[in-house]
From TrEMBL:
It is found in: Golgi apparatus membrane. Keywords: Disulfide bond, Glycosyltransferase, Golgi apparatus, Lectin, Manganese, Membrane, Signal-anchor, Transferase, Transmembrane, Transmembrane helix. One of its GO terms (molecular function) is carbohydrate binding. One of its GO terms (biological process) is protein O-linked glycosylation. It comes from Xenopus tropicalis. Belongs to the glycosyltransferase 2 family. GalNAc-T subfamily. The keyword Nucleotide-binding does not apply. One of its GO terms (cellular component) is Golgi apparatus. Its EC number is 2.4.1.41. The gene is galnt5. Residues 449-574 form the Ricin B lectin domain. This is polypeptide N-acetylgalactosaminyltransferase. Pathway: Protein modification; protein glycosylation.
Length: 579
């Protein structure tokens, strides 16, 4: 069931919103010896756009449908061709007890061949696509912590068996300080038999994000291709990715992420025409392209799909470009949010992100992580997201925090952002407004909840600010002093001034807007969900008893006890963007 599998894809990537893993501890900083770049200086010899690293030839060939797993093997082996596998009746208990080793059916994974064949799920036409002969080489970087042996090896074999040999410079397995014994000497010995595979054992837990940087730092290929440690690369997966990077070194190419069932290990294709997007507050998800758009623009199943954000795990990026972008923000911890960071950075600083439908890689989506977080999982992800928001979102931070006010509490603990902000400056990146307008125009959330004149219908007067005090005047649409906005953080704002109640008085005054001041937040319309008769009121969020009231006597604004009967407490903005 395709739509179901997509639904679960989204659900699982969003699971940080639901799962509360309370593991405690501290993540230690990286040591110098590790060679992790925490300075955001691009390395020397960065090739410029206009001077390609090597002479280019325009010779082309059809994608090589390499599948070395096709040589003699048992067609009846369990899971062959990506077929579902059932656990025998007498093994149910074993299968169940082994589930938590990986949070998928580890018993079945161990049963099926490490180099099983899977269905070639590429859209028709992909096999005839032309690819340049002089593609750049790539280093494959697979970070893992406590990955199940069979899934890790199946990932490696799928790369070795389904990629043209000359394009793979190396496969770097970055062991993020795993605890399982088989991932130590046994792994080192085993990979000696495999061509091109190296293991980098990190001396302490880096977290996925800094582990990727550590892998990149020792990579020697022209392109970095990141993969998760429980994937199966499908036929012809690599060349289309490298082709896109070859054409434009600032293009970051992602394969279609297909689904390897956590339950029966079957390989399932996914619906075409899906873009990687986000919903507020920066949750990753998939969004189907509109059929009208597909028809209007004559988009075929083979065409690359521009994505506002990438899922995070699987992509190819030119190595020098990755460093020009400052890699990932090294201040991001463990897991999560790094896909938002790199996506905003790529788009806003002159690059692009595409899903390449002719490249397909299966991935086991799991309901839980088989590894622990040094700190609480949700807190880790949320802190990362706040870091990203503070560097990249500009005015849109208002929407971000408006969709999760609890995120504000991380602000004191997100660490120093100077280098990230300098990087944005140095790369002369465009602003977030440009990004939304050009890359994610269908984002759909207006920047403000309401704007324009703020009137009291009973008095037929509008609120205005004259010489820093409130006055009630006849409404004049083009008068600046009568313009207010109602924001996602529930501020009522004119410029950078926000309305606040004056304590112990029944008046209201102005104060520079500040996300952290609770008294600046007012409920209005749908924000007042508990009392329908107060929907036209403007009620203080922190008390639920104070409302803004027009005072005909003084001709100004007061803040008094809310009552549904008081008509002077009813307000209307000129224009509601969200009711
Ligand atoms: C998705 C991405 C994942 C990453 C994540 C957000 C896909 C298919 N997956 O979650 O790559 O972008 O979103 O951060 O797009 N790992 C470590 N050290 C750690 C934690 C994880 O090495 O401290 C490894 C882990 O073994 C795995 C990879 O990082 O190979 C990604 O972790 P995951 O599979 O738990 O993440 P996933 O697929 O839910
Ligand atoms: Mn994964």
């Amino acid at each position: 069931n395709i739509s179901k599998s997509l639904g679960s894809t989204e659900g699982i990537l969003d699971k940080l919103a639901r799962i509360d893993n309370a593991a405690k501890g501290n993540i230690t900083e990286l040591t110098e010896e590790e060679g992790v770049k925490d300075k955001l200086v691009p390395p020397g010899n960065v090739p410029k756009d206009h001077e390609p690293a090597k002479p280019r030839s325009n010779k082309m060939h059809k994608v090589v449908p390499i599948d070395r797993t096709m040589s003699p093997r048992d067609p009846n082996a369990p899971g062959q061709l990506g077929r579902p596998v059932a656990v025998p009746e007498d093994k149910q208990g074993e299968a169940q007890s082994r589930w938590r080793e990986g949070h998928f059916n580890v018993y079945l994974s161990d049963l099926i061949p490490l180099d099983r064949a899977i269905q070639d799920t590429r859209p028709e036409g992909c096999s005839n696509q032309l690819i340049h002969d002089d593609l750049p080489t790539t280093s494959i970087i697979i970070c893992f912590i406590d990955e199940v042996w069979s899934t890790l090896m199946r990932s490696v074999y799928s790369v070795l068996n389904r990629s043209p040999e000359h394009l793979i410079k190396e496969i770097i397995l970055v062991d993020d300080f795993s605890t399982r014994d088989y991932l130590k000497e046994k792994l080192d010995t085993y990979v000696k038999k495999l061509p091109k595979v190296r293991v980098l054992h990190l001396p302490e837990r880096h977290g996925l994000i800094r582990a990727r940087i550590a892998g990149a730092n020792i990579a020697t290929g022209e392109v970095l291709t990141f993969l998760d440690s429980h994937v199966e690369c499908n036929v012809g997966w690599l060349e289309p990715l490298l082709e896109q990077v070859r054409i434009n070194r600032r293009k970051v190419a992602c394969p279609v992420i297909e689904v390897i069932s956590a339950l029966d290990l079957s390989y399932m294709t996914v619906e075409s025409f899906q873009r990687g997007v986000f919903t507020w507050p920066l949750n990753f998800g998939w969004k189907a392209m509109l059929p009208e758009v597909i028809q209007r623009d004559n988009i075929t199943e083979m065409d690359p799909i521009k994505c506002p954000v990438m899922a995070g795990g699987l992509f190819s990026i030119e190595k020098n470009y990755f460093y020009e972008l400052g890699t990932y923000d090294p201040g991001l911890d463990v897991w999560g949010g790094e896909n938002m960071e790199i996506s905003f950075k790529i788009w806003m600083c002159g690059g692009e992100i595409e899903i390449i439908p002719c490249s397909r890689v299966g991935h086991i989506f799991r309901n839980d992580n088989p590894y622990s977080f040094p700190k609480d999982r949700i807190k880790t992800v949320e802190r990362n997201l706040v870091r990203v928001a503070e560097v990249w979102l500009d005015d849109y931070k208002e929407i971000f925090y408006g969709h999760g006010q609890h995120l504000l509490k991380y602000l004191p603990n997100i660490g120093d952002l100077t280098e990230q902000k300098q990087l944005r400056e140095r790369l002369q990146c465009k602003n977030f407004n440009w990004y939304i307008k050009n890359v994610f125009p269908d984002m759909g959330t207006p920047l403000l909840r309401a704007t324009g004149m703020l009137s009291n219908p009973k008095l037929r007067k509008c609120l205005a600010i004259e010489n820093s005090t409130f006055v009630l005047e006849s409404c004049e649409g083009n008068k600046k002093s009568q313009q207010f906005s109602y924001t996602w953080l529930r501020h009522i704002r004119q410029g950078d001034q926000c309305i606040v109640p004056v304590e112990n008085e029944d008046s209201a005054s102005l104060q520079p807007c500040d996300y952290t001041i609770v008294n600046q937040r007012w409920l209005h319309k749908s924000q007042i969900s508990f009392h329908s008769s107060l929907k036209d009121h403007i009620m203080l969020d922190s008390t639920f008893i104070t409302c803004l009231e027009a005072d005909p006597e003084s001709g100004g604004l007061v803040a008094r006890e809310c009552s549904s009967l008081k008509h002077y407490q009813k307000w209307r903005f000129e224009k509601y963007l969200v009711l």
